[in-house]
Amino acid sequence: MCEIIAIANQKGGVGKTTTAVNLSASLANLNKKVLLIDFDPQANATTSLGFRRNEVEFDIYHALIGSKRLSQIIYPTDMTNLFLAPSNIGLVGFEKEFYSKRSAGRELLLKKKIDEIAGQYDFIVIDSPPALGPLTINALSASHSVIIPIQCEFFALEGLAQLLSTIKALKTTSNPDLVIRGFLPTMYSSQNNLSKQVLADLIQHFDRELFKRSKKNDCVMVPRSVKLAESPSFGKPILLYDKKSNGSLAYQELAHAILRGVR
Questions:
Q1: What sign has the CA pseudo-torsion 252, 258, 259, 261?
Q2: Is the terminal CB of the chain with fewer CB neighbours within 10 Å at N or C?
Q3: pTM reported for the whole predicted model
């Protein structure tokens, strides 16, 4: 059965796209067939996998408006088992054109498209934009679970209550089966006291929602990493750019935790 995972946090700069790209690549590396849906008009996941936004003829926007089927805008990547449904700046027109109050089932548009192809994949990962608007609502409504990256810096938990409230509301309306797969601490630095404090706070209040590493009792955390920051500019997931880097190992641990079904 295909699991559909949304990566969401309305706060920008917390590592959503980095997580979507590198979790997808790590799952593909474990012989799972994975589709990454770039559902952010900034299209950073698209460029992170080596696609130039303006050179992709058809993207997720065309699937939403019905001019193409979702299956027709899916592209293979440099990794075996990893496929991409790209995005483009044109996706910003989604709210104005197709999300009026008169639109019945407006929050389920993406789900209907995904239902057509879900059986072909083991995992579908959706990279959502940094906002709690129609795109993120559609991503959450289409998903079985959500992973919430949380930056280990000041104001890390700011806005988290709003996101959790949105998820709770969706469970009573468009997606009663949606669950929080887990919180993922990102940009952690062992040399930074603030990072340590934020992580300690997360462990104290949300220990059950943190992913656990396979051979240790501590949680999976993504370190602040130059290699992780560099890899998108080369159009590669970290597994292809520097497989043995700390950032790569963290996302491989996350993929293993997901396959174990534990947090």
A1: positive
A2: N
A3: 0.95
